Structure formats: structure tokens, C-alpha cells
Amino acid sequence: EPNTSSTESDNRQLGKIGTTYTRPGSAGSIVPLKSRYENFIGGDWVKPISGEYAEDLAPATGLPIAEYTHSGHADVDLAVWSAQRAFSTWSVTTTAERAAVLNAIADRLEQHLEDIAVMESWENGKPVRETLAADIPLAIDHFRYFAAAIRTQEGTIKKLSNNLVSYHFYEPIGVVAQIIPWNFPILMAAWKLAPALAAGNTVVLKPASATPISILYVMELIQDLLPPGTINVVNGSGSLLGQHLVEHEGVGKVAFTGSTETGRQIMQYAIKNIIPSTMELGGKSPNLFFNDVAREHDDYYRKAIEGFTMFALNKGEICSCPSRALLQEDLMTNGFLDNAVSRVKRIKVGNPLDTETEMGPQNSADQLQKISGYLALGPQEGCRVLAGGARAELGGDLAGGYFVEPTVFQGSNGMRVFQEEIFGPVVTVAPFADYDDAIQIANDTIYGLGSGVWSRDTDITFKASQDIRAGRVWVNTYHQYPAGAGFGGYKQSGYGRETDQQTLRNYQEVKNVLDNH
Ligand code: TAP
């Protein structure tokens, strides 16, 4: 039986994370947090066997939020065992029963939307205006979408001859290992948990060490809705426990979102027991602007300028960040680039819990250091710095935060800053001469995740949406992630699709029955 223990008592001092966030119509908001978060295993809060913990830091201040478990192999074993036990009952529930649980989770999250949004904002650093409007509502909708998807999934039946009929059962795989990154802690969890549970699997989830608590905060809110062991959350260092989890004999599938480098390692682990994997990896997404966007200075023009600034959304810590802006030559000199750069300079950088803030701090000191390296590299490679280019120094309580200025570099596609994923608020701009030139530069990357095309000419956008080698092409928009539209990568951005019907198949075995009457 799991070695369970009750949770630590509330620590309102540490929990006062919401004091600068003012709820509309109220004096202020406090999200109560505990001082320490255990693993969530078998429906209970379980201390790590080693008794070791680490500190979760707030990126806006560099100060601790709470402690999380530094788990080891034995904790992973316990979580897999709990998930295996839960599988025997969860996997034989009806699709209607599973859909009811997912809908109940969605309803519960909706009741607590504001608190979850504040928590996620403080732990990740992303502005609360984004978590309130996008991250958490999209996560909620995901549970609803997969509740519907599992009930409407169609199979195939073929009559092969007068007495031979072929049909399929879609069966859950078993225990699924899910390893997620820190840039969308709740949304990435929802993208993975909802389809896995809908299909009848049970889960061991490993959050990123930079954001270990948001998902546990959510688990506290929904734990009474779930049969024990259906979702198990184990925190700790991925490099210490990731291999053990993926190679565990009790695990039947791994789903990963994170860097291409780590994805490559996890694929090696998955080989051991020949388990299927899905990989959502890195990107260096092109955002193409054709001359006709500047034909008039109208709403469309302004929308395109906003499209250019999308590289700074979530402080650029998005796998599909439009980090290469490719502008047709006229746009470099006719005011479009100047207007876009002025808009970038007006992006309000500050406290993520301030609803006026457009860009918060980078997620961690490591991330800040990595981005700073690229800020230095750009000019060394010969880039012109059109905006930003340095760390943003904010005073007062935020003096210790990991803030960076939104940065625009002008250069050429061969440079390292054009080819390597920076994962920060940095866009590199280069000109193109004509359509063929645009597509050639857009596809000149090892990645193929997102892309954007901006033109008033539907012949251009329609053709480009076919010629760009990426899993998602946004036409005259960017950074929309509705459930129902499949998302995933080409090339070294990974394989497998999430957020639509196809995702269910990632979590299902397909059994063929040949029935000879
Ligand atoms: P990673 O360093 O790859 O970490 C992702 C997750 O993998 C974390 O939970 C991490 O745990 C774990 N991990 C690290 N080493 C591991 C190992 N050897 N075995 C098993 N798990 C291991 O990436 P990140 O820095 O968190 O996220 C940034 C990257 O994710 C970017 O490249 C970005 O493009 C990509 N990303 C892609 C997408 C999609 S949809 N394609 C979405 C978001 C992010 P620890 O935190 O404990 O190290």
C-alpha cells in the first residue's frame, strides 16, 4: 500500500502570491498555498521515500513559492503500481462514465478559474491576462472536447466476403507516462491527461521542475472527482527519474513535450520495451509578411503588426513562437517594419499579476542565462539590434526577477540566432524577394512546428499553406490553439498530433477482429 501522509498545514505567508492581483470588483486576491507539496499517488499525498525536497521559485522575484518533492526511482515505482491497479477498473468503465468525469473536472476548474490563473501566472511568470483569457479556459475546454470525442469516435467494419467480416476494437493501452515542460504547465497537462483518460488509460505525470506546483494545485481541486490512481503526479529531476519511468515494465506508452534534445533521449528509452511514443518538440517558426499587407493602413494592417509582435507572447517561451519574421522587401523600408518595431518597444514588461502587463519574466534563472547568451550572440554575428537586446532591469520587489526586453534582430537566415531555438522574446527579421524565396527561407530549418502567412491575396496564402513544411500554418492570424484543430510537428519538431480526434489514437491499441461466419 502507498505510504501516505497528510499534507502540510497552510502557510499563508508563502501563499500570499495574489496580493498584487486585483480581482475586478474586489480589494485583492490571495491564493492559499501550502508550504510543501507532496507527490499525488494513488489518490493520496505521498512523501518522497528519500525525504528530499527542492524549492520552487517565483520568476518575478526569484523568491521561493513552496517546496516540491525531489523524487527517486522508488517513488516512480509506487506511482506506476498505483496506476496499474487503477487501470483494471478505469479501463472497463463506459465511455459515458469517463466523459462524465472529464466534464466534472472541467466544471470544477471553471469554478476556480481565477485562482488557477493567478497560481499559474506566479509560478511560470506569464501575465495573468494570458492565463485568465487563454491558458486556463483552453485547458478546461480540452477536458470537454475529449469527453465528447471519446463518445463519438467511429470505428470501421468491412465485409471482406460473404462470410468474412473485419472490424476494430480501440482499446486503452495501459499506464501512460507523460512528461511535460514548464511553459504551459496546466495546458500541457490538459493536452495529455484529457485524451489519455478519455481513452481509458491511467497516467503517471512528470511535471517540469521549474513548474512543479500548478498541476498539484489543480489536483487538490479535482481529487475527489477521480478514482484513486487514475492520475499520479511525481515531481523530481527528469534526468534522474525520466529513464526509469519510461523504461518501467509497467508503462505502455510515453507522451512527451519538451526540447528536441530530451525527446531524442526519451525515444531511446522507449526502445527498451518497444513502447509507442509521441513527441512535441522544439521549433523555429517562420512568420511570412507579403508586400500587400501594407497596401492600406487599415484594420488588417494593424492586425498584421500585432501578428509580428506575437513572438513576445508568453515571453517567447512557446515551441511555436514566430521567432523568424520574414518580410517581403518593400515592408523593410515602407514603414511596416518601423511600425512593428515601435509596437514592440511599447510592450509593457512587468509584474505578471498586474493585469496591464503584456510580458512577464522568463521562467527561470537558467532560461534567462540561455537567452542572454543569444542576446550577446546576435550582434556578434552581425545582426542589427532594432529593439531591446538586453535584460530588463525592474526595481523594487521585482529587482530579482528574470526580465528580458522584447528584442528585434535584423540579419540573415544562415545565422545561429535564425536557426537555433532561443525560447525567449527575440525575433529575427530577414527580407525575401518573391514567393519562391519566401518559401525557401521558411523551410530552411531543421524544425517544422508552427508558421504564419500574412497576405490579403488568397492565392498566396492558399499556396503557402501547402508549400510550408510545418504541422501548423496560421493564415492571417497566429497563436490560436482551439481544441479540434490538430497540433504537432514535422521534421525535428516531433511526431504525433494533439488537440483533436487523432489524439485519441495515440492512446489506443487497435485490435482487428476477423469474424468468419
Ligand atoms: P526539457 O528540458 O526537454 O524538459 C521537458 C521535460 O522533460 C521536463 O519535465 C524535464 O524534467 C523532463 N526531462 C528532462 N530530461 C529528461 C530525461 N533525460 N528523461 C526524461 N525526462 C526528462 O524542455 P523544457 O526546457 O522544459 O521546455 C522547453 C522546450 O520544450 C523547448 O524546446 C520547446 O520548444 C519545447 N516545447 C515544445 C512544445 C510542443 S507542443 N512542441 C510545447 C512546449 C515546449 P526537468 O524539468 O526535471 O528537467
Secondary-structure-based class equals alpha/beta
Per DSSP E runs of 2 or more residues, the count of β-strands stands at 23
**Ligand types:** 7-thionicotinamide-adenine-dinucleotide phosphate
| Shape label | globular
| Count of runs of 4 or more consecutive helical residues | 17
The separation of the N and C termini measures: 48 Å
The main sheet orders its strands as 15-16-17-14-13-19-20
Radius of gyration: 23 Å
Largest sheet: 7 strands, mixed
> What is the beta-strand fraction?
15-25%
Helix content: 25-40%
Mean pLDDT: 93
Unreliable runs, pLDDT <50, ≥5 residues?
1-16, 24-28
Description:
By secondary structure, the protein is α/β, with parallel strands linked by helices. Helix content is 37%, strand content 20%. A 7-stranded mixed beta sheet has the order 15-16-17-14-13-19-20, with helices on both faces. Helix 9 links the parallel strand 11 (251-257) and strand 12. The radius of gyration is 23 Å and the shape is globular. The structure holds 7-thionicotinamide-adenine-dinucleotide phosphate. The site of 7-thionicotinamide-adenine-dinucleotide phosphate (TAP) has 30 residues, from helix 8 and helix 9. One of its GO terms (molecular function) is oxidoreductase activity, acting on the aldehyde or oxo group of donors, NAD or NADP as acceptor. Residues 45-513 form the Aldehyde dehydrogenase domain.
Characteristic key phrases:
alpha/beta, binds 7-thionicotinamide-adenine-dinucleotide phosphate, seven-stranded mixed beta sheet, oxidoreductase, disordered N terminus, oxidoreductase activity, acting on the aldehyde or oxo group of donors, NAD or NADP as acceptor, 517 residues, 17 helices, six-stranded mixed beta sheet
